[in-house]
Amino acid sequence: MGAHLARRYITETETEPDPAKKFQFDPEFGFDERKERVPAATQEQMNLAQLPIEQRDYCAHHLIKLMKCKRDNWPNFLACKHERHDWDYCEHQDYVMRMKEYERERRLQLRKKRIEAQAA
């Protein structure tokens, strides 16, 4: 834990991507055909479910199902294990996807730096 912080602020400051900013490289770079991710739940569905802004992501449709299950099965919250598992799994897969994108961006920046050093 914390290796990314050491790289970000100490060792590789010019090649470590800033997660708060938009990535510098084209998302299609290195891919023949790549589908853009689209959320399964629409903005209207999220508004009707009264989802908080921070939970409106690619897994919102699973969260909506979980909230509906909890509402329908109250007070037996244990009846919603499957929906909870689906939502947790989706959140984990989303996290893995974001970390892969971050690592891809970092490696592309290292590659760019290496090519520029060879050209000079």
Describe how the helices and strands are arranged.
Blueprint: H1 3-11, H2 43-48, H3 60-72, H4 81-119
Concise synopsis of the structure shown:
With 120 residues, the protein is mostly helical.
Average pLDDT over all residues? 86
Characterize the largest beta sheet: strand count, sense, and whether it forms a barrel: none
Shape: elongated
Q: How helical, in percent, are the residues?
A: 55-70%
Terminus-to-terminus distance: 36 Å
**Classification by helices and strands:** mainly alpha
Radius of gyration: 20 Å
Strand content: under 5%
Pattern of helices and strands: HHHH
Question: What is the β-strand count?
Answer: 0
* Unreliable stretches: none
Number of helices: 4
Features:
single chain; 120 residues; mainly alpha; 56% helix; elongated
Overview of the structural elements:
- With 120 residues, this protein is mainly α.
- 56% of the residues lie in helices and 0% in strands.
- It contains 4 helices and no strands.
- It has helices at residues 3-11, 43-48, 60-72, 81-119.
- Helix 3 packs antiparallel against helix 4 (81-119).
- The longest helix is centred in the last third of the chain and has 39 residues, at 81-119.
- The protein starts with a helix and ends with a helix.
- The relative contact order is 0.13.
